[in-house]
Amino acid sequence: MxxxxxxxxxxxxxxxxxxxVRERLRAKGIRDGACLVYAPHxxxxxxxxxxxxxxxxRDLQAQxxxxxxxxxxxxxxxxxxxxxVKSSLVGASQLIPIExxxxxxxxxxxxxxxxFDGPRTRxxxxxxxxxx
Length: 132
Ligand code: ZN
Hints:
The chain is an alpha+beta fold and 132 residues long. It has three helices and eight strands; from the N terminus they run E-E-H-E-E-H-H-E-E-E-E. A five-stranded antiparallel β-sheet has the order 1-8-3-5-6, with helices on one face.
């Protein structure tokens, strides 16, 4: 398993980590298989979505904040319940197929690290699954 750090600057932030995953894949040299991209955090997540129009990320963040506003009727006293809810909605990982040595992402797809309780220094794990 490999690991790299992500430094976030806002409470809510999406960071495009696609190029980092691509670089690691090139170094690994896997032709066919899959890559598990995983965030070991309870107020963060990993998602795949559009990279062309930054308004897509803004809309995603805005809609998640409508579902889980920062100030809400929460029992958890740490003050980051909104982040916990968003983390579970987005999920902690994505499994991306590798085909011919490349991530099998669509033209407009990018891999995003999703911060929901920043700013913090976060970790992303990559687990490589080599096919036959
Ligand atoms: Zn908490």
